Amino acid sequence: MSNPIAQPLPSSQNYAAFSVGDLNGMNPGSGEFAYMSPDTLMSYCSARLKGIDAQVKEQFAKQEAANHATTALSALMQALGSSNGGAIVNAQTDPQGQQIQKAFQNALDATAGDGATNTAVRNEYAKFLETACLPKDDKYGVAPGAGGDKSATIDAKELQGMSDNIKQAQSDLNSGTEMSMIKLQQLMSQRQTAISTCTNLVSTLDQAQIAIAQNLKSG
Fold first, then answer.
1. At residue 142, what are phi and psi to the nearest 5 degrees?
2. pTM value?
3. What residues does each domain of the chain span?
4. 177: which DSSP letter?
5. Contacts (Cβ under 8 Å, ≥6 apart) of 10
6. So what's the architecture of 38-218 in CATH?
7. Element (H or E) spanning 105, and its range?
8. Closest to 72 (Cα-Cα) out of 28, 115, 118, 17
């Protein structure tokens, strides 16, 4: 009697398309895995787990970036409220005005990877440059708005309006972060399922090989 021939699993280029659901659809007890070598099966399991781990790493990076952006937006809102309900008489020379401009720049850096949030910050920064009668910020490519404000004074209403819009941008960012957390939880669940399924398949494979060996002996 000839020795069983190990059958290969899907090629490496198909690993990404071969999901845990596909693996769960196979019946370990049907004999489909009886002639797979342990090395072949473990190679598939390793490739599958690496694919999930790469996605987990990506989600962790997004979470870290979102946390950094949230912190910068909070600092910006704090700077916008530093006048305690009063006006900034001359935003060009007032330390509060300079603090606000620096906070806007930090927020632009922190949100560089999030298009929607970064656009919201840029829009409010343009308003600030206009009301403060400041020139275009060439480093960040933000020009003053076209409202025609000729006074460097920023009143409390203008400051509050900017702060409210930044708060809304932060709220939208947090909503996206919550969705990202759900995605991360799903990936961790998929990872655990993949490990459990592959463990069961290896056990089934071992049992099948033992049965084959016993049949060979009895034959």
1. -110, 125
2. 0.67
3. 38-218
4. H
5. 17, 18, 44
6. Up-down Bundle (1.20)
7. helix 95-110
8. 118
